[in-house]
Structure formats: C-alpha cells, structure tokens
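On clarity, I found the account of how folds are encoded harder to follow than it need be. What matters is that the chain and its backbone geometry are given together, residue for residue. For the editor and my fellow referees, an illustration may be useful. For illustration, here is how one protein appears when written out as sequence plus structure tokens:

___
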Amino acid sequence: MAAGAAGKTVLLAVDPSGGGSEGDYSAAEVLDMETGVQCAEFAGHVGGLELAWLMTRLATEYNGAWLVVERNNHGSGVLALAETVCGYGRIYRQGDKRGG
C-alpha cells in the first residue's frame, strides 16, 4: 500500500487523451478525500489499454481508490477496459449508473 494511504478514502481522477505520441498527455491525480491533499500524479502518452492497466494498479496501490475517469470519447473505452479487462470494481458511477 502506498505510504500514507492506509485507512484513507482516496480518489483517482483520470483525464484520458487521444493526442497520440506528440499530442496531449493523459493525466491523473490521486487525492485524499478527507483533506483534499494530492498524493500522486501521472502524465504520459499512453494508449487506452495501457492507461487502464496503469490506473487500476495505481488505484489498487492507493487503498482501492475510487476510479473516476472523464467519460468522453477515449474515457468511455478506458472505463470499459478498467472494468472488464482489468477487473477493477470500484468505479465512480453517476445517477444513470454509467461510469465516469
């Protein structure tokens, strides 16, 4: 478990990008829900499946963090991969029960 995450409710917010190797970066922030303190961050040029694997591993490391992925063109794919391929179950859902 990540340092300082034990017993904490943590959120992992992810902004996927479709910018390719020379475009925008995908980005993520790990936040302590009680204090709002940023625990970690990620930025990189990665594809959807790689991003899903990275984010679910990071969320698992941070006390089974709530995974909140921006549901846009690329985010919908990352959400589906995180849940079905990576098997991550703690995904934020809106009132319509869709992830993101």
